[in-house]
Amino acid sequence: MKKILYIVSAVCLFASCSTTNALKSEQYAKMYEEKPVSILVMPPINRSTKVEAKELFYSSLIVPLSQRGYYVMPPLLTMEILKEESAYDAEMFVDSSMKQVGDLFGVDAVLFTTIHEWAKTTIASQIRVMVEYTLKSTQTDEVIFTRKGNIIYSPNSYTGSILGNLVSNMLMTALTKEIEIGRKCNMYTLGDLPAGKYSPSWGTDGHTDAGAESFTVQIQ
Asked: How many CB atoms lie within 10 A of CB 82?
């Protein structure tokens, strides 16, 4: 059994690793050219079967963006303005020009997230989330940052026995606040974003390796 578990772990590790030789200044060249300072986060586009996924993701997007050095429009204020404009659904804007959005909110870029999947699996009580992040310029309408991740959340609750571990994982999954899953997905994916103006690394991280634009990773 140990040998089987080792093989499975090795396969998962291999599948989650994706290498790239591109530097951030190469992969995200448009980010370094335009140097956006402020970002508007649109409500996520939810194409999964989990109704609550939209709110779970939206509430946790501001932190990783702020940590990367960007000014982010407050979500509550954004929602109020969008509702007043009868434009709550991001689907209305994702394929449109961002220039009007930039004029309305006074931001340099708009972040869209599309949740393609949010589902629990029967293996080790895992939760799989497939989400796509697209940052569009309000000046040029170009995509200046994009990543798509297949993220597998696995509760870490090994008890030393197969039966005990199974029961523990079931309890962990039942008790886990799902907003934490959304937070970890956002932190991992947006962690590759080039540093913004309010970060000490602004303008100096272009020589570091960029993460894969499409990836699979397992987190706890």
From this structure: 21
